[in-house]
């Protein structure tokens, strides 16, 4: 593993649309970029046995998650010619309709950005030690499982 | 042998973070055995261990003052 600094990806609570807009705006100075790809995960109001989900409460094994994310980041940069990549994941409570994951990749032409974005989302869901507790409107809960 | 146990997600609802001092746990297979005896609910669950922040894929030796995380299937994103 390289000596590059391990970046934090965790955000307290939902990821605000204004934060995402700001993140996009910051790239106007990076004029070598010709294509961005963005994925946003939103908490869905699932219905389970007649009860609706009202929020997901996220927890993580933060140290291990950040180390894993660092490895994934290095793999992806090695595989695709990207100009930059930004990843944010919520911790704590995120209500239905709010954003809990934001992945943003950029490259000179669109294809690497799109492929890298998709691959980061897949790997992040499978490999990062993060857990979502689905909270129902009546305050009962169940634990989310990624399929 | 001193081991610090930390647990996450669904498993944190019935295993508290704790420090244990036990003899005869030389590797992660033995630790799993110990865990499932102490917490029978684990037997029917899927979980992974991380020994000193390394996710365990095969039986691994445990040294004194290890930290072992007990982790149910991940559900980020």
TrEMBL record, chain A:
Annotated GO biological process: Mo-molybdopterin cofactor biosynthetic process
Keyword line: Molybdenum cofactor biosynthesis
Tagged with keyword Phosphoprotein: no
CDD domains tied to this protein: MoaE
The keyword Iron belongs to this UniProt entry's keyword annotation: no
UniProt GO molecular function: molybdopterin synthase activity
Cleaved signal peptide residues: none
Pathways per UniProt: Cofactor biosynthesis; molybdopterin biosynthesis
Enzyme's top EC category: transferase
Pfam families (UniProt xref): MoaE
Reaction equation(s) it catalyzes: 2 [molybdopterin-synthase sulfur-carrier protein]-C-terminal-Gly-aminoethanethioate + cyclic pyranopterin phosphate + H2O = molybdopterin + 2 [molybdopterin-synthase sulfur-carrier protein]-C-terminal Gly-Gly + 2 H(+)
UniProt EC number: 2.8.1.12
Subunit details: Heterotetramer of 2 MoaD subunits and 2 MoaE subunits. Also stable as homodimer. The enzyme changes between these two forms during catalysis.
Family: Belongs to the MoaE family.
Protein name, as recorded: Molybdopterin synthase catalytic subunit
TrEMBL record, chain B:
InterPro entries: Beta-grasp_dom_sf, Mopterin_synth/thiamin_S_b, ThiS/MoaD-like
Domain of life: Bacteria
UniProt name for this protein: Molybdopterin synthase sulfur carrier subunit
Source organism per UniProt: Pedobacter psychrodurus
